């Protein structure tokens, strides 16, 4: 019988909507799509950031970093984005996954906090977009969305905050 060692980590990220910047947004910024888990949410305001600002993939990347101990978002992603022009958050996640070693992701759980957009119609599509990026099935990706009863800036519509809990396993060694 195979025995596994399990670990759980948490990742978090948040971004402000481009229309809620503390300055006037440019036309290019206002045309930015909202990406969540690599999926474009139709007709939604995009998030501000140097990259594509995919807050779901950033939270996931941070959760992977919590497992590996290698921080990707920060110096490494800044080099990828600002020096190499890589703005696709899937590339940051892919870079983080290179450090997993013999760990396998077994399950992901995301909580998305924000007043807008209403996400229930898109949750299955987001799950289906995330799953192949980490080699798991969509049913192993849980996603909930909440407004937080408007108690934070996210719940009042200024941006989105995401928490990701990652569960990973590896074969126990003797």
Describe this structure in words.
The chain has 174 residues and is an alpha+beta fold. It has a single domain, classed as 2-Layer Sandwich (60s Ribosomal Protein L30, Chain: A), CATH 3.30.1330.50. It has helices spanning 27-30, 55-68, 75-83, 89-97, 123-130; strands at residues 4-16, 34-36, 39-41, 104-113, 141-146, 159-171. The strands form two sheets. The protein has a four-stranded mixed sheet. Strands 2-3 form a two-stranded antiparallel ribbon. Helix 2 (55-68) runs parallel beside helix 4. The longest helix is centred in the middle third of the chain and has 14 residues, at 55-68. The model has no long low-confidence stretch (mean pLDDT 96).
The count of domains is 1
**Count of runs of 4 or more consecutive helical residues:** 5
Measured by DSSP, the beta-strand proportion falls in 25-35%
Inertia-based shape:
globular
The main pleated sheet reads as:
4 strands, mixed
The tally of strands reads 6
Q: What is Rg?
A: 16 Å
Task: State the helical fraction.
Answer: 25-40%
Mean pLDDT: 96
Question: What strand order characterises the main sheet?
Answer: 1-6-4-5
Output the structural class.
alpha+beta
User: What is the distance, rounded to the nearest whole angstrom, between the alpha carbons of the first and last residues?
Assistant: 13 Å
**What is the string of helix and strand elements?**
EHEEHHHEHEE
The CATH homologous superfamily is named 2-C-methyl-D-erythritol 2,4-cyclodiphosphate synthase
- Stretches with pLDDT under 50, minimum 5 residues: none
CATH topology category name? 60s Ribosomal Protein L30, Chain: A
Which CATH class? Alpha Beta
